[in-house]
Amino acid sequence: MASGAAAPSAIAAEELSRLTDDIVAALKTVYDPEIPADIYELGLVYKIDIDDDRKVAIEMTLTAPGCPVAGEMPGWVENAVASVEGVQAVDVDLVFDPPWTPERMSEEAQVAVGWF
Predict the structure, then answer these.
(1) 1-15, 36-50, 82-96: the lowest-pLDDT one
(2) Which end of the chain has a smaller Cβ tally under 10 Å, C or N?
C-alpha cells in the first residue's frame, strides 16, 4: 500500500455506496435558512468519512462565521444523517478553513439563488 493511501473499508462496496448515497440524500434535506438551497448543493459539506463501524464524520462550514444558525446547523445535520439506515453515530465538525465562497455552489444551487 502506498504511503498515505486509505486502507480498504471493511464495509462491502455496495453497502458503502448505498450509505454514501443515503447520507448525501439526507444532507440535501438540510437547508440554509437564508439561501433557498440545501447545504450539500451550496458546497458547505467539505468531507464525509464513514468508518468500518458505520460512524460518520462530517466536516462542514457555513456561508459566514456569523451565520445566525451556527449553533443549530450542526445538530440539524447530525439528526438528518443519523436517520440513515445503518449509520451508527454522527460527528459534525464545523470548520471555517478554507472559508466558504459562492464558487463552491453546484450549478443547481446557483440556479436556485438566481446566480446562473
Answers:
(1) 1-15
(2) N
